[in-house]
Design goal:
Blueprint (H helix, E strand, L loop, with lengths): L1 H18 L19 H11 L8 E2 L17 H7 L11 E19 L3 E3 L3 E22 L5 E14 L2 E4 L4 H12 L3
Length: 188
């Protein structure tokens, strides 16, 4: 009886060791590593780190007797590059695309303030339009090594339009003006 049990345990041990060798899918159970392409991290980072690019900020009211505010905060280079179309995702050493020598020129096109109106979740406010035209000059390099090696360089120009609109609260009376200013500044 002991020899039969020994032979069965030996056969099960041998089968288990042979089954865990090589490329057996799910041989590690729930701990089996899953291959993830490198661009997945970049796309997830784009999706979750720059949430404020398309949000409209709410600013304090425009005080009477003072000049209207100007759009003095053009989009930064990182926001302009995020707004550009993505580089073609290639296969390393077979087809790759690069952008080198990037220069960005930003022009303000529109700077105007609308009359007050009601905005849901904000209340009475004025919309301040700030529109920018961003011209991007860069060298595009395309490298390919298969089926025959070649490299192509072109100077390219892209134009990206960016809106940085924001709202200015609009109090309807002087008491409301003081209340809104006190709430926004945090003074008592």
């Amino acid at each position: 009886m002991n020899t039969v049990r020994t032979w069965i345990l030996l056969a099960v041990g041998l089968a288990a060791s042979c089954g865990a060798v090589g490329c057996v899918p799910y041989s590690m159970g729930i701990f089996t590593p899953v291959p993830v392409p490198p661009w997945v991290y970049e796309r997830m980072q784009e999706k979750y780190t720059n949430n404020n690019d398309f949000r409209t900020p709410v600013m304090p009211p425009i005080l009477p007797g003072f000049p209207p505010p100007l759009c003095e905060d053009p989009p930064d280079d990182a926001a302009v590059l995020r707004a550009m179309p993505h580089v073609t995702r290639g296969i390393p050493y077979i087809y790759e695309e690069f952008r080198d020598g990037v220069e960005i020129v930003t022009e303000r096109l529109v700077d105007k303030i609308d009359p007050p109106r009601f905005f849901p979740l904000v209340g009475l406010a004025q919309l301040h339009h700030c529109h920018y035209k961003c011209t991007i000059y860069y060298n595009e390099t395309i490298d390919a090594t298969w089926p025959f090696p070649y490299r192509a360089r072109k100077q390219k120009v892209e134009v990206v339009m960016i809106d940085k609109d924001h709202l200015h609260l609009y109090p309807s009376s002087p008491e409301a003006q003081r209340s809104v200013t006190r709430d926004l500044v945090g003074a008592q």
